[in-house]
Amino acid sequence: MRIKHLMKTKQLSQATALANICSDHPEISNRGNFKQTYLVCLCSGSPNEKLMQEITDIDCKDALEMICNLESEGDEKSALILCAAFLSRQLQQGEMYCAWELTLFWSKLQQRVEPSTQIY
Asked: In this protein, which residues make up the domain named Zinc finger protein Rlf/292/654 TPR repeats (predicted)?
């Protein structure tokens, strides 16, 4: 709850630091979506290089779960940023694992976030 409050009050550096500490803590990291929250903080306030660095060890199935969680919470912009980051990683590494699912999510989220943009 504290992290969400920090995010709402635009204290992103503090929210990012706290979410990172919680996601790395061995006792509480499994009790919440701290990694997801940490990545959302990075989407909101950091350069993409840091986000790309942080997602290197995350399994694509876990990424899809995070994207679905964000979408169901109504945070489509963060879901789109994460989806684009994971899809970019897959394409850069030449991996096809989950690429189809990520592409479908990306196109759906892109149309919702920027409906006036003609992408296709």
From this structure: 54-118
